[in-house]
Here is the input.
Amino acid sequence: MAMKFLDDQVLIHYYLEGNEQAFEVLLMRHKDKIYRSIYHKIREREIAEDIFQEAFVKIIQTLKLGNYNEEGKFLPWAMRIAQNLVIDYFRKNGRMKLVSERNAKSEDFTIFSVLKMEELNIEQSISKTELETQMIELIQHLPESQKEIIEKRIFQDLSFKDIAEAENISINTALGRMRYALINLRKLIEKHQLVTDLD
Here is the structure.
């Protein structure tokens, strides 16, 4: 049977057995979706291509280390790896912002300011960084529509008007989703006991 008709899990098995062509088929099958997901957030072709290549290096390394156990769900797993690299890129380049519910309707709010950012001493700054990292992870647990809104606002720095146009929804709907996303983030913060004395 031709390789292209095999499912992902079988291709991964063949690749781990030493068949390089199996991974080429896997790559060709999913590369467009993975690249588009990166470019959609980065909007810079060269950087998106670098992150895409880095994602596949990481995918190969993880497979070869025997750490893949997603039972046939290769694409969502690969997309998560790419998403994490995008988050790393924004954090390293200082483009990750922080939001609070009370200023979520403002066009110039900063995301995650569940923390107040005014006058942080050294200890508070360290706490803020640690909390920010945990908050980024918590975003992944939001409903898809809410996660999309937050990611567009954080990573792409889009206005609510631009988000509404991109999602084909009203500005009020976009604002509503952001509000519910922030409410849900607060619940997750309480659930995971992410306490800060920055309030």
